[in-house]
Amino acid sequence: MDCWVIRQPTGRAYIVRVSVTTGLRRLVLGRRLASDQLQETLLPKRIALPIFGSDALSSVAYAPDEILLTLSLAGMAGFAFSWEIGVLVAVVMTIVVLSYRQTVHAYPSGGGAYEVATVNLGPNAGLTVASALLVDYVLTVAVSVSSGVQNAKSALPWLTGREGLVAMVVIIILMALNIRGVRESGTLFAFPTYAFIIGVIVMIAWGLIQIEVLGRPLQADSAQYQVVGDPRYDPFVGIAMVALLARAFSSGSAALTGVEAISNGVPAFRKPKSRNAATTLAMLGGVSITMLLGIIALANLTGVRMIEDGASYFTKDGQPVQVVERTVIGQLAETVFADFRPGFYFVVIVTMVVLFLAANTAFSGFPVLGSILGRDGFLPRQLHTRGDRLAYSNGIIMLAVAAIVLVLIFNADVTKLIQLYVVGVFVSFTLSQTGMIRHWTRHLKNETDPTKRPAMQRSRIINGIGVVCTAAVLIIVLISKFTHGAWAALLAMAILFGVMKLIKLHYVTVARETAWRPGDDRVLPSRVHAVVVVSKVTHPVVQAIMYAKASRPSTLEAITVEVDAEETQKLLLHWKSADLGLPLRVIASPYREVTGPIVKYVTTIQRSSPRDVVCVYIPEIVVGHWWEQPLHNQTGLLLRTRLHFAKGVMVTSVPYLLRSASVAKDRIARENPLAFRGIGTTQMQSDSQGDPTTVIPPSPKGNNG
Q: Which of 71, 353, 521, 613 could form a disulfide with 78 if both were Cys (CB 3.0 to 4.6 A apart)?
């Protein structure tokens, strides 16, 4: 079934037939963009903030939850330390933001922590950072989407038990939106991100005004309950207290995830790229810290309580009670906007949406980092290629698949996923800041301008403080979370590191084996022995014979495999009557195998004359519908695969277009309506025998169908 699209280049209208599947693809993903339109996709600061900052901004929606959940293990005594932990997290975030502002100025090419570590600490350090960030990006998508599903459950109870499947659907939608392009996805995500910022800040401000100015005793619903903690932390003193506070701090440090994304996305900013990226980073840090501290302060003032399932529980009047638990933001919104329900629904809805969209930070960072690693040969080079919409589509799809696997395994459980989180980002933070110290030290040795040296020294001090703080946090995270799941993240990083080293080794080995230099031998084969594979006398077979004759080989013969004696006799009679001008050799196959006897025959020819080349022509039917493909060419596919491993053997597929393959010509017409008028890209036509005619060179400026 076809639809019709009107195209009007240079003022003239053309009607083009477009397949339904292609039309749907363009509807979902948008029109294709030419390479010279890359400038149009660059981002202003107002769009870059929701794209690269949605993860860090949205983490304030679940970081307070994780702090309170961990502190609940100590019972009521633990909640008293929530604000100290919040302040400590805010201090570390400030230092990290200041440190990364130095990075975006020094390394604006988009490599971020990977480039910094590679240049200053060596390839292994860079690869360690890369593996940590790739794992962290996958976890960012899984945790953000899972947290959004958990928030949605308070408004949509039917999601209970289906969290993993719902999270999978959300990830697929985000994948499709990001394949449309960074700018379009950012424009779409800007409104809910800014709505979330405004909603949370208004909630914090109005709550503090009611408590501090109007004197209203706001109390969260959970404030009426007591929390009984884990007996292991009773009494809450000494080593037990230090261990639990360290674990709570490491969980709250999830608020720092996403800060590094801007340093990886500098090339996506408008000029001046570095300055715009640094400004956006400062905006991100200021807003995130304000919201984080505001939420924790308001939670303390309203008495918000949370429990960790299976370890702590609620009691009232000394009796355990079952409570439908809500997130911190959900409880605060209900308390602050008790007399204004639209305000409550607004905050809950935008929080849910922005948690889903927080994954967009990873969808922006992972493909760029994957592209750089693909360029450097540590990942498949296909990741370095941009798609129709100038986005790194292969990287986006890879990220989505990995995140879907995680949410299905953990059924979108944030508490379980959060234990794997944060480790990777602090590995990259620490190595990046170490690399920046070496960067400034190296430049200070060669810098003689007295006006520039003070700025470099200040930058080195900032990065020095950054490496001390991030290394300390990394140690705390590893110690406090190792047995709770951090080991799995470390194992994933180690495996990914090893895989990337092996990929690099493969590319280096292949490059060494295939390298050719002037002066190397250029030996022509003595003769070419051409073999045409025949099953029946058909148009595709005759076409293959004609092409083989046109190549003028030294020897030309046709071969067939005798699977059924009666069918072979019919073929011989038909072959004789066709008078095709070459012999047909019949190869016996007592076990009715086709590919094996052909491969054995061809390799025997080559071994008998090692300086000859054997060229095998395989007729191939070209179909126009996907469902036809499994019905044809399977023997040819297997034969080609096996012959590719035979030395001195070349394989040539001779395509024959069926009538259904006219869809291929329609596709060319869709992509360039003028192709059959002599203007555009490659033109392919075929007559009733399937003979192709080509080639018209591409026009100077591409046409986008």
A: 71
How far apart are the C-alpha atoms of 422 and 406, rounded to whole Å?
16
Domains 39-507 and 528-657 agree in fold: no
The per-residue DSSP string of 514-555 comes to H---TTS--PPPS-EEEEEE-SSS-HHHHHHHHHHHHT--SE
CB environment 341-374: b (16+ within 10 A), e (fewer)? eebbebbbbbbbbbbbbbbbbbbbbbbbbbbbbb
What is the rounded CA–CA span in Å between residue 502 and residue 509? 10
SS3 590: coil
> For the segment 79-90, what is each residue's pLDDT rounded down to a tens digit?
888 888 999 989
User: Other CB atoms closer than 10 Å to residue 632's CB: what's the count?
Assistant: 14
CB 458 within 8 A of CB 414: no
> Is residue 133 a contact partner of residue 372, using CB atoms and an 8 Å limit?
no
Give the DSSP letter of residue 269.
Answer: B
Confidence of residue 277 (pLDDT cuts 50, 70, 90): confident
Q: Where are the domains of the chain?
A: 39-507, 528-657
From the centroid of its chain, how far is CA 324? 35
Q: What is the mean pLDDT of the chain?
A: 80
Q: Contact at 8 Å (CB) between 151 and 330?
A: yes
Q: Of 150-159, 348-357, 551-560, 566-575, give the lowest mean pLDDT range.
A: 150-159
- Nearest of 357, 367, 360 to residue 397 by alpha carbon: 367
Which tops the pLDDT comparison, 411 or 97? 97
Can you tell me the distance from the alpha carbon of 396 to that of 407, in angstroms, rounded to the nearest whole number?
A: 17
Q: Check if the beta carbon of residue 120 is closer than 8 Å to that of residue 436.
A: yes
What is the rounded CA–CA span in Å between residue 503 and residue 656? 37
Whether residue 138 is predicted with pLDDT greater than 60 in this model: the reply is yes
Report pLDDT digits (tens) over 321-338: 887 778 889 899 999 998
Q: From CA 80, how far away is CA 58, in angstroms rounded?
A: 24
Kindly state which CATH superfamily the domain 528-657 is placed in. HUPs (3.40.50.620)
Using CA of residue 280, residue 281, residue 285, residue 286, what is the dihedral sign? negative
Retrieve residue 106's tokens: 């020094």
Strands (E) across 39-172 are located at none
Q: Are 419 and 484 in contact (CB under 8 A)?
A: yes
CATH architecture assigned to 39-507? Up-down Bundle (1.20)
Across 519-546, b (16+ Cβ under 10 Å) vs e yields eeeeeebeebbbbbbbbebeebbbbbbe
| Residue 597, preceding peptide bond in cis (omega within 30° of 0) | no
Mean pLDDT throughout 292-315? 86
* Cα 70 from Cα 307, distance rounded (Å): 8
| pLDDT attached to residue 520 | 67
Dihedral over Cα of 487, 488, 492, 495: its sign: positive
pTM of whole model > 0.85?
Answer: no
Q: Give the 3-state secondary structure of 392-444.
A: CHHHHHHHHHHHHHHHHHCCCCHHHHCCCCCHHHHHHHHHHHHHHHHHHHHHH
Chain-centroid distance, C-alpha 357: 14
pLDDT at 615 over 90: yes
CB 493 within 8 A of CB 131: yes
Q: Which residues, 6+ apart, have CB-to-CB distance to 508 below 8 Å?
A: 377
Which pLDDT belongs to residue 617? 95
In this predicted structure, the answer to whether residue 184 has a pLDDT above a threshold of 70 is no
**43: DSSP letter:** B
Omega before residue 235 within 30° of 0, cis: yes
Report the distance separating Cα 22 and Cα 592, nearest Å. 42
